[in-house]
Every structure is written in C-alpha cells, then in structure tokens.
Amino acid sequence: MNAEAIPPATPGKGMRIAMILARSLMGLLFVFASVTYFFKLITPPPPTGAMKVFNDGIEASRYLMPTVKVVELVCGLAFLSGRFVPLASVLIAPIIVNIFLISVFLIGPQGLPLAVFVVLANGFLAYYHRDRYRPLFRS
User: Fold this and answer.
1) Which of 14, 51, 83, 114 could form a disulfide with 106 if both were Cys (CB 3.0 to 4.6 A apart)?
2) Which candidate, 111, 15, 20, 34, places its Cα nearest to that of 76?
3) pLDDT at site 11
4) DSSP per-residue codes, 33-90
5) Domain residue ranges of the chain, discontinuous segments joined by +
C-alpha cells in the first residue's frame, strides 16, 4: 500500500480545541511581547551577570532584537488569526529554542515555566499540522 494513498487522520474535537487554545495563547504572548518592545510599554529590570553580557551583545548588533520582535509579531498575528499557522510555527521555532536555552543557561528557573510552555505549545502545533510538513521530508 502506498503511503500517499493513506488519508490523513482527522483530529477529534478535543484535539482541535486544544490546538486553538495553544495557538491563541502563543499568539497573545508573542503579540504582547513585541508590542511592549516596540512601544516601550514595560521597562524590564536591568540584566545582571552573564545575561547582561549577552544582552549587551544583542543590543550592539542594533538589528537583531527588532528583527526578532517583528517575527514574533507576524507569527503571533498568524497564530491569533489561524492563518498560516504551520508556517508561523516553523518561523518562530528558532526564537523559541533561544527563549528556552536563555532560560536554562542565563536566567535560571524563574524563566523556565514560560519557556517550557512555548516549547510544548509549538511542538503540539507542529504535531497537529504534521501532514503539512510531510512534503519537506520527501527526497
């Protein structure tokens, strides 16, 4: 039997509700983070130690944080609207990996709950839309 002849599984109602909840929460999170950055609505506490060195390097580049925040805004809006979710999930993945690794190595345990949430939520979205990614893995 040909693998392409097998129809994709249709997700159940509970799975669909969980997907909508995960992508909506991620969308709100990323839109909030980017809007507060661009409009300087929240002044974060000054970083210390290794995080200060890392942050100084990012700020010295002058392009990296605005680029990251634009990607977060675009992906957040895609998550909230429900359009282009598989693409947004792929685009936001490197940022999520960095959020997680910064929380593990530089910030400490207080940043881990949010980092673990975005890793798991994006993983869930990728799993939910796994049929959309299949063509990427064909030779």
Assistant:
1) 51
2) 34
3) 75
4) HHHHHHTT-S-PPPP-HHHHHHHHHHHHHSSHHHHHHHHHHHHHHHHHHTSSHHHHHH
5) 13-133
Taking CB atoms within 8 Å and a gap of at least 24, the contacts of 101-108 are: 102/51, 102/54, 105/50, 106/49, 106/50, 106/51, 106/54, 107/51
| Segment-wise mean pLDDT, segments of 10 residues, the chain, 139 residues | 57 91 98 97 92 95 97 98 97 98 94 96 96 90
Cα separation of 89 and 64, whole Å?
20
CB 83 within 8 A of CB 30: no
Give the C-alpha separation, 81 to 97, whole Å.
23
Q: How far apart are CA 100 and CA 44, in angstroms?
A: 18
Distance CA 2, CA 138 (A): 14
- Token duo for residue 104: 């593990």
DSSP line for 86-114 = HHHHHHHHHHHHHHHHHIIIII-GGGHHH
pTM for the model: 0.89
